Request: fold
Amino acid sequence: MKLLNLRLGTNDLAKARAFYDATFGALGVEPSQMPAEYPIVMYKLPGGPNFAVGPARDGQPATHANGGTVLFEADTPEQVSAWHEAGLANGGSCEGQPEPKPQARGAFGAYLRDPDGNKLSAYCGLQLS
Reply:
């Protein structure tokens, strides 16, 4: 099985685009090429699935997952720090400073919430197996 797409909800597509263009840019991903009039913003993640943000399809307000976290891989601790800084500068909030994380066997990581409250993390050196 292969994950093809991951989509998070947003209530402000322009704000979400600015946040993800900046944070993904810090990790070496190009800004979204989706035209501004499209109802979603999509990114092609290198070696991974598509990542999209958009309003909830049922027309109700988008809400974040309680207990859910989306994790991104960074190449260096400096990228993790730049990702975190870009997120804070573009409407995100801190959920964990960039630093070695004891819960991840000392891997360097950071946590943010995007402008809609979705919890995200970026790590360098994380061993998942």
Notes: The mean pLDDT is 95. The chain has two helices and seven strands. Strands lie at 5-9, 41-44, 50-54, 70-73, 93-100, 108-113, 119-124. The two ends are 18 Å apart (CA to CA).
